[in-house]
User: What shape does this take?
Amino acid sequence: MISEETIKLGKTLAIVSYFTFVGLITSIIMNLEKKNPFTAFHIRQMLGLIIMLIVSNVTEKYIDTWFGTILWYLTFASWLFGLYHAIQG
Assistant: This one.
């Protein structure tokens, strides 16, 4: 279980990791020194969402339009869910 102090210290970088690819890279670099487990969890979540987004875009373009669109909406909903919980701590 992650302590409240750890969450408080890592909350800002966790939130930043959800905003664009540049925010993700910034969070990774800044967390290398601190090694905050809360931030690291949200960084891994965002990396998974980026992979999911790439898969949905490739699926939409080359395989099936409607299935790729559904994957994109699922990715977006997951991004909102992750961002919400990063803000909530």
About this structure: Residues 37-63 form the longest helix (27 residues). The chain has a mean pLDDT of 86. Residues 24 and 47 are 8 Å apart (CA to CA). The chain has four helices and no strands.
